[in-house]
Design brief:
The chain has 272 residues and is of the alpha/beta class. The protein has a single domain, classed as 3-Layer(aba) Sandwich (Arginase, Chain A). It is built from nine helices and eight strands.
Amino acid sequence: MPLLPYNICFAFASGAPMAEVRDGPLRIAYRLLPHSLTHIIHSPLANKRQGLTKGIKRLAQSVSKQLQRYPKVLIFGGDHSCAIGTWSGVRKAYPQARIGLLWLDAHLDSHSPLTSPSGNIHGMPVACLLGNKHSLFQHMIGYQAVIHPKDCIIIGVRSYEPQEAHWLNSQGVEWHPLSSTPHPATSLDIALRKLCRQCDIVGISIDLDAFDPTFAPGVETPAANGVDPRPILPVIKRWLTHSKLRCVEIAEYTPVNDREDRTFCLIKRLIS
């Protein structure tokens, strides 16, 4: 059984190039959560930009609704642009709260449509949530930042463009390249302690490509030399029981790229 009381599986690929990433939440729902309280949201693939905005708003509404009924919610995304909907929903549920967000990812996800080499929205959710003023983001979530830049900490990073780093630094965001993080589990624990001290509630967003492809090959955008999950999983699982933690999000599971169910087994160990 999952550690958190309510689950939302968001079959969504509108922010990424691979449609198969939408299969990840469905695989989790049917194989891991058949007897749990689970809401499955199917997002259309037609007209990706229109489907993106519609899907994000549906997810935000669902997250907000369930957080008013349950103390904690677990989200399984498709691609990581689902984070825009997840944390917008947390903000709707707690409009006056100071929300801390721990972002575990191989990438900074801090592009805008003006800087992204690919134009894929799954490389932009951090910028959107932290208040980048591009009109696309404002159309999706409005004019206000969902998370204050000082309340977001990014760990596990090893693949990014200079424009992303420049923008995050200009906003005062704390982020840690994996090359300068010899003990990611300790860094994650310290980061969550800091967020709990300064924020009313906290959440964790996990892109599975944060983990080394040896352990998690089933992702859309793998990056070599990643986080070893073995020391970090006990830390995450311990934090799942913390009174301030309200939401955990797991994104980018892509079953077609998995080998020997390694990524699936990693997810299973993480949530059960």
